[in-house]
Specification:
two-stranded antiparallel sheet; 6 helices; 81% helix; globular
Amino acid sequence: MASNKRGCFCLSLRTAALFHGWLNIIVLICLICVTLKQIFYNNPDAMLIEMYNISLRTYYIQQVLLLIVHLFDIFLCALVIGGITLKTHYLILPWIVIRAIGLIIVTPLVITTIAFAVVIFKIEMIIISVIYALIVGLFIWSWTIVYSFNKEIRETLKNSLPMSSAVPYFEYQRR
């Protein structure tokens, strides 16, 4: 049964969820390229190491961990695309849970950054805070679309499955 619910820009929820899944993968591939560039081609300068008081080994460990997180996120986005294509809500569920936890952690940090920028009133901080707020807003929007489609899949499966595989009582009486 085709759904007439809209996700974004007159797209169906399915198409919008697929769009967000592929968009996440493209952004993550770009982030992986940036991380690989930082690992192999950028040497952190002495000022950066002294400013944050970190060793060179710690810097590279941080970059490798960031690379692993990006690869795991690509795997989750592939699960979302597979779940949408196969209409299996269990494949979409890990992405929804992990993104919800991430949004619960990140949203208060962005609100705190915005409040701090307003108190200090530095234009650079305000611009960075607005950019952070827009990024978090896009993540919330993406999560809402994928969650709505997951809910739609569950409702469709719940309505299409029979209550039990047993033959109803009135059919036994006819025989």
